[in-house]
Amino acid sequence: MSRIAARFKALAAEGRGALIPYLEAYDPDRATSLELLRAMPAAGADLIEVGMPFSDPSADGPVIQAAALRGLKAGATLVGVLDMVAEFRKEDDATPVILMGYVNPVESYGYERFCKDAAAAGVDGLILVDLPPEEGAVIAAPAQAAGLDIIRLVAPTTPDARLSYVLAHASGFVYYVSIVGITGTRSASAHDLAGAIPRIRAATDLPLPLVLVCARQSRLLRPPA
Amino acid sequence: MKCVIYMGATDVERQKPNVFRMRLLGAEVVPVTAGAGTLKDAMNEAMRDWVANVADTYMLIGTVAGPHPYPAMVRDFQSVIGEETKAQMRAAEGRLPDVVVAAIGGGSNAMGIFYPFLDDVSVRLIGVEAAGHGLDSGKTAASIERGRPGVLHGNRTYLLQNADGQIDEAHSISAGLDYPGVGPEHSWLNDIGRAEYVGATDTEALDAFQLCTRLEGIIPALESAHAVAYAAKLAPTLSKDTLLVINLSGRGDKDIFTVAEHLGVTL
Ligand SMILES: Cc1ncc(COP(=O)(O)O)c(C=O)c1O
Fold first, then answer.
1. In terms of CB atoms within 10 Å, which end of chain A has fewer, N or C?
2. A182 Cβ partners below 8 Å, 6+ apart?
3. Which of A59, A104, A180 is closest, CB to CB, to B150?
C-alpha cells in the first residue's frame, strides 16, 4: 500500500481528518525549508505538500507567488527539491510527501526520468496544476510505473460530467479547490462545502481533503526555534 | 460593462499614450509588477482574475496565445487582415503576393495575415521575431529561433526558458514583442516549414522606423518596424517584379517617446 493510502486508512481508523500543510521548497533558502519540512510531522502534519517553485505560478495568489520567487532566487531546481525530499525521508518513512507545481519544469526534466527520480527520493504523489487530464497521458504511465499518485484538481465550477472525467484520471486523493479562484485568497464557507462535498463524494471513493487558507501564521506551524 | 486591462508595469511606462487612450475610453488599466512587468506577467495576472471571477467575466487575450480555444479564436478574428490583403492584391495586381512579412510578438497580426494564404503555397510567409540585442545576446524575444518547446499559459509552444524549464524574461525595445512565448500555431508552421521565422534587432527596428517614416510618411509601430527592417533586407535580393507585402500592424505615434529616448532626443 502506498504511503498516501496507508495514511488515509490510519486516519479513517482513528476517525479524524488529515492536516496537509503546504511548504514552498527553498523558501527562503534550502536549509530553512528543509528544517520546516522536518518539523511538520511532529507539529501535526499528516501529509505534506511541497511546492516546486516556478517562474509563472498563474494559479497562485500573492503569497505563493512571492514564495516561489524567493525559492528560485535561493537556487531551487527540481533536482534540489527531490534531494530535499530524500533528506527528509532519511528520518521519516511514513509521512506522505506530495510535490505540487507546474508542468513545464517537469517536462523539461523529462516525465519518465522525473517520476523515477521522484519515487526514488521518496515522493508519493504529484499535483501538476496546469496539466489537464486531456494532456495527462505524458505522465500517467511513468507515474504508475514509479508508484506515484497523480492527484487531480476539481473546483466548484467543475460540472458533473467533467467531474467524472477528471476523477477517472485521479489517484491518491482529490484536491478540491473549494473556492473559485487562486490559492490563498479566501476559504470556502461551511455552506459552500455542505453543497459541494456530497456532489464530489458521489463521484469518487478517493479521500477528499479541502483547501483552506490560514490568514496568519498559525501556532501549529510555527517554524522551529 | 466594466473593462479591466492588465498590463506589465514596464509596458504601462513605455506605452503611456496607449494607457492614456484606454483610460479615456473608460477602461481600468492595472499595472502588473510581478516578474519583469511585461506581457507574460500581465497574462498570469489576467488569468488569475479570470479564474476568480469566471462566473461574470469574459477574458480576452490580445494575441494568439493562451489556452484553447483562444489561439484559434484570435486567429479567426485577425484573419480579416489576410482576407483583405488577398482581395486588395487581386484587385490591384491581379495575382497573389509572392512574400508576406509580419512581426511576431505573440503572433496575432502575423497569424491573421498568414492564415488565408496557408494553402497558397507559392506565397512565402515570413515572421519577424524581435532579436532584441541580437539573437545570441541572451536579451531577445525570439522564441521560435532561440526557444525550445514547453508549456506556458495553457499551450505548448516554443518558449524562452532555462535548462530547468523556468521561463526566461524576454527582451525587446518594443513592448508588443516582449513575450517569451509565441502562438502555438506559429510553432507548428515553423516545424512543418510552411512559414519562415527570422529576427530583427532593436537597432534594426529603430532604423526601419525612421526609414519608413521618411520614405513613406507613415510612422510604423515599433513592432511593425521589425517587419519593415527584415523586408528592407530581403527586398534587394528579390527580382523587381516580386510582390512583397509588409503587415503594418499598428501606428507608431505611441512609440515616439521610446524612439526619441533611444535617439537621445528629449521631447
Ligand atoms: C502594433 C502592434 N503590432 C504587433 C504587436 C505584436 O503582437 P502580435 O504578434 O500578437 O501581433 C503588437 C502588440 O502589442 C502591437 O501593438
1. C
2. A59, A60, A61, B48, B51, B52
3. A104
